[in-house]
Each structure stands twice: as structure tokens, then as C-alpha cells.
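no rush on this but wanted to send it before i forget. theres a chain ive been looking at and ive put its sequence and its fold in C-alpha cell form underneath. i want to understand how the C-alpha cells follow from the sequence so walk me through it. thanks a lot i owe you, the record is right below:
>
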Amino acid sequence: MKKLILLLLFIPLVSVAQSPNIVYILVDDLGYGDLSSYGAIDVKTPVIDKLASEGKLFTRAYANSNVCSPSRAAILSGNYPDRVGVPGVIRQFEDNDWGNLSDDFVSLPDELKKSGYKTALIGKWHLGLESPDIPNKKGFDFFKGFLGDMMDDYNHHLRDGVNWMRENDVEINPKGHATDLFTQWSVDYINQNKDSKNPFFLFLNYNAPHSPIQPPKKWLNLVKKRENKADLSRQKLIAFIEHLDNSIEKVLISLEKNHLIENTIIVFTSDNGGALHHSASNKPLNGGKGNMMEGGIRVPCIVKWQSVVKPGIVNEPIMLMDFYPTLVNITRKFENLELPSKNILPLLKNNMLSYNDRFMVWVRREGHVFGGRAFYAISDGRYKLLQNSPFEPYVLYDLNNDPLEKNPINNKKIRNKLQKELTKHIQISGNIPWQ
């Protein structure tokens, strides 16, 4: 017995509490050029900027689509969205619904639960309205938020007259601005789990700054005075983003007050580019939400892990689905060769990561003028082949020499190479039902 006790003393004990908490903040339709840390001169975002100065700022982070649902499906699956049944936007309207989340993939929260994590989603879901396509059936222990695509009003939370606000599977009717509600619920969750023996994964999904652009009056009045030369549409969006920045500060303060900040990974990003028709800025990039130009798919992305990640700028291209294997690998050794996503932990730790064998693909299937057809883009990191409509011919750009996509090139060899890889992708995703 004494020998056994001595032997046990020399076995390294690993507690699940030693794993870092994860707070993944996903905002909706934030433009690449709408944070001061990304070059905005009329938007004041000191909280997010502080995150950027204290962590890694990615200059070439890509959402997996130019619209909401597919990007969210990719984050939660570590896979291309059309390979998990979500090539387009999931809506409550049957004649304009372009996705059906697959039942047979292991979600990010499910993988983290294998490492001892508690899991919660607060805010927008947008991947299904009924079981089994709801958060509590996709790995989240706790859900409090909005199941639908967008709110018709941030203070009343309805979508076409339907209330999609839920706490787990129970319909709720909370009072207040949605951004404030999601913030307070997140603070409550952190306070409730501050002494937990298990780490937590909090996936905080704000609806803002997605339309309708409805900042609280206090914030709009401040911006009107400061940015008096801007038109009202731009003033409203600026105020909306600055209110969001202030809300994120409250979440970060709760981590600090509970002495959790040092051992918490904070990811901040957006599900796609900014909507130009709502006065968003994706400067200096070309394009915006809904199309395959860089402004539609390249997003702000910041990672802070105070005790591990040194501040800096990362210029290597990544996709949001890459956080799936990255976060799991932080908690345990994980490798799934069937997933196209990459473990970017080396980039967070200032090491290089080889992209020699990587092709990045984007998809959007949509109704309206697109008639339910899909259109695509593909890139090897340097060259990018894209179309902004299923009725347009593909256009090729050299992003190294033309990062703003102003001058298409004619290189048959590169074009054929990318087209061949895209065809392979379409063949694979064609086996996945999305209706």
C-alpha cells in the first residue's frame, strides 16, 4: 500500500479546472473597417481595441460565408457549412429557407464537454427553430436567447409577429434592448459559474449590429454631437457599435471581478462582413455582406489569452471554422482528419503554420433574385476565384498584388486549378441534404 501511495504521488494530476474558460463573442454583420483597431476614424471602440492590443489581431480572418447561418454552422462543426446542411440562410419562411442543420456531426460544445466543460449559448442561434435543431440538442447545457434570424425590433424581439426568445426550451418575453439583455445574461452566467470546478464555454452571440439599426437614444445623441457631419444612417450604426463595445466591457469586467480573466480565452469576431446598405464600412476592402469580395467574407478577429498569447498581428489567412480544432486542442489532443479546419494554435503562439495544401471555399445558396441557386468562391491564400451571383462568370484575383480586388487577372493554369478543387468540394457537399 505504501508503494502504491508513493507511486501516485509522482503521477501528474490534471484537473479539468486547469483548462481555460472560453468566451467566444460573435457579433452580427460587423464591418472590417468599423472598429478603430481596424482603421475606423469615426467609430470609438476602446474596449475591443484594448482586447486587440493585448491579444492577437488577425488581418485575414475569414467567415465561412457572406451571410449568417452558414458561418455559424461552420464555427460549431469545424466544417464547411454546406457539408453540414447549411449552404444558406435558415428562416421561418418555408419559401425562403435554405438550410437544414445535419444531425450527424459532433458539435464544438459536445467536444468540449468531453474535456469537462460546461457549455452555454447566450444570444442569437439562427440554425433551426425546432428540435433537434436547437442549442440544447447541439451540445449546449444552457441556452438563453433568440432562435430566429433577425429581430424586427430590438426592444420587442419578435420576427414577423413570432416570439423566438427562449430559456432552454421555454418561451420567454423579457423586457429591454436585446444587446443589454444578452450582456446581463452573460454576466449572470459568469457569476454563477465563477467557483465551478469545471471550466465553461460561453458562446455569446449578439444580434447587433445587424439591422434594424436601433441604438439606445443616449448613444445616438452622443454620436450625433460628435459626428455631426455624418448622415443619420451612419450615425445610427456608429452608435449601435459603440453601445455594443460598452456592453462587451461589462462581460469582461465580470471576468475580472471574479478573477477569471487570466485563465480565459476570449475570441471576438463577426459572422460576415458589414452590410453596405446600412452604412457599414469594410474599408479598405471591396464589397460587403452577401457577396464574395473580401469585404463580404473577411472579418475582424481578435484572440486574447492573457497567460499564454502574446500581443501581435497575424497576417496568415484563417477561417472561423478553425477555432473548432484549435479550442479542442487546447483542452486535449485532438485530430480529426475528415475535417477541413486547421488547428491555429501555432499562430496564437507566434509559430508559423503551413498552408501549402489548403484551399478555402465559401458558399451561399439564396432565394430572391438568385432563384435558390448557390454561388461560390475559392482561394489558395493568394489567388481567389469568385462569383457574386450564380448567373455571373467566375473572376480571378491575385490577392498578393491586388488585395482590394480591383483588377481581375487571366491565368488559365491557376483558374483551372482552383476550379478543379471547387468542383471536388461541390461533389462532396452535393451528398448532404439541406432541405
Observations:
- The domain at 17-348 is CATH 3.40.720.10 (Alkaline Phosphatase, subunit A).
- The first strand starts at residue 21 and ends at 27.
- Confidence is low (pLDDT under 50) at residues 1-17.
- Residues 232-257 form the longest helix (26 residues).
